[in-house]
Amino acid sequence: MKDDPRLQSILLIKNCNPNQSKVKICIELLIFYIENIIKYQDVEMYREIRLSSQIVKENVLPIKGAIEFLESIGFTKKKLLMEDHEEEFLVLEDSMDDLALLENSINDLKSVKRIELVLDRNVQVLLPSNAEIKMDHQKGAEELENQIVLKIQNMEIEKQNSSNTNYKYCLIRIKFPDYLILQGIFDVNERLSNLLDFIKESLFNENLPFKLKLVDGRTIGYADKNMTLSELNLVPTAFLLFIIDPLYTKKNQKYPYLKTELLLLV
Prior knowledge:
- By secondary structure, the protein is of the alpha+beta class.
- The chain is about 40% helix and about 20% strand.
- It is built from 9 helices and 9 strands.
- The strands form 2 sheets. Strands 4-6-5-9-7-8 form a 6-stranded mixed beta sheet. Strands 1-3-2 form a 3-stranded antiparallel beta sheet.
- InterPro entries: PUB-like_dom_sf, PUB_domain, Ubiquitin-like_domsf, UBX_dom.
């Protein structure tokens, strides 16, 4: 595929244009052009595409990869005389040489699939500062949590002030009772269930019941699983506390919270 500009251009069309409805129209139009060339091989007008036509300006030129595709199957840019002036066209000089290429191009336009991108969570496990650990020993976990809340309040204020900003991703940090912090990146439209599953899959004991505490004091869990991270105001960043279900006493926690392979990231 590296040396196949035709397939490269098709992938460009299907993967590098955000409006998929316009991509669909463009592909249908490209197929229409090729089908007419095959059907009317001796008719010159079907091998000429006027770049200034409204249809081309609206449905071909704005689509990344469309012109590259036409050039890959033999079209070249030329100026042709139109009455008393010249206009720029894409022209296919000879369609008889490689009809198989044209037919294969139709099949490829129909069959090549859009590549679905998978978000890299960029998982990290972070250590708190020595000062935080010392404070925890001296003043207790509850007071440390209050310090964390105060430290993050400015971030929350800034978040509210920038509520009109359209974020695509958010960075989530989860602090565990053993001080370790699990970090991951999420799409803002992912549901809380995705975050909860991410945490569950990171636990040494995946059956450990837990909830998450937000900096405003609210707790969230599987009861809120259908809400998006954006709706929960976890955008663009959020610091959450991992809270073990009260019914699960501390003495039941015999193992590290996070899996061994994640602890190696520290």
